Amino acid sequence: MGRGRVQLKRIENKINRQVTFSKRRTGLLKKAHEISVLCDADVALIVFSTRGKISEYSTDSSMESILERYERCSYQEQQLVPNGSEHQESWSLDHPKLMARVEILQRNLRNYTGQELDSLNLKELQYLEQQIDTALKRIRSRKSQLLHESLNELRKKVKENEKSLTEQAQWEQLSLGQNSSSFMPPVAQPPLQPPLPSHPPPLTIGDSFQIIGFLNGDENAEVQTQPSTMPPWMLRHVNDTI
């Protein structure tokens, strides 16, 4: 059996009215978050209770930027309306609203910095905590992303430096090898010696020889001889025989 349709009229019972407000406010904030995520839309929601307490929701872009866009759109639409007394009266009526909006935004900023929290109830504090946690998660995610990109960039630079040093060392080693081989002095070869004769020239008894060339290693050198006188003992022997 389905739930009956609720008649839209003011709830007279104060307690029931407060309970209904809390439930509907939670559902409204949830719906605002869902439409912002599903449809990628910029959503800003502001709800005031009968006690004057504020409940708000905004997407990734801050509440201030969404309100500024709204004011610019409203101002552009008002420029199309011809100037007149009615137009000036609307501006005079909008001024208090704008001042109240500025006051609300300033109070929200103070709440985000941890100030003036005594006027907030438990659910408002939980919602404020949720917004701050969401902001912290985005900040940490962005920080981690930047750190990861920085580390990758450093690793890339280190690899490039190592590659450059390796190529430079190889080039220097190759250049050093080429220079040492080109400037190496030739090995001195020992001079060739002519072969000595196997048999020296024969000597004759009684003659003294001056062998020139044989001692110098010249095999074709001319052998010069010089006769000498007989020794005295040989002369006596010759005379006795005569």
Walkthrough of the structure:
Residues 88-177 form the K-box domain. The chain is mainly α. Helix content is 58%, strand content 7%. It contains five helices and four strands; from the N terminus they run H-E-E-H-H-H-E-E-H. A two-stranded antiparallel sheet has the order 1-2. Strand 1 (44-48) and strand 2 form a beta hairpin. It is rod-shaped. Residues 203-227 have low confidence and may be disordered.
Shape: rod-shaped
Q: What's the CATH architecture of the domain at 10-81?
A: 3-Layer(aba) Sandwich
Residue fraction in strands? 5-15%
Gyration radius from CA atoms, angstroms: 60 Å
Give me the number of helical elements: 5
Unreliable sequence segments: 203-227
**First-to-last CA distance:** 184 Å
CATH-level-4 superfamily name of the domain at 10-81: Transcription factor, MADS-box
**Major beta-sheet overview:** 2 strands, antiparallel
Query: How many β strands by DSSP?
Result: 4
Keywords:
SRF-like, mainly alpha, 242 residues, two-stranded antiparallel ribbon, 5 helices
What topology emerges from the helices and strands here?
Layout: H1 14-38, E1 44-48, E2 54-58, H2 63-79, H3 85-112, H4 122-182, E3 208-210, E4 224-226, H5 232-241
Antiparallel strand pairs: 1-2, 3-4
Outline of this structure?
Pfam families: K-box, SRF-TF. With 242 residues, this protein is mainly α.
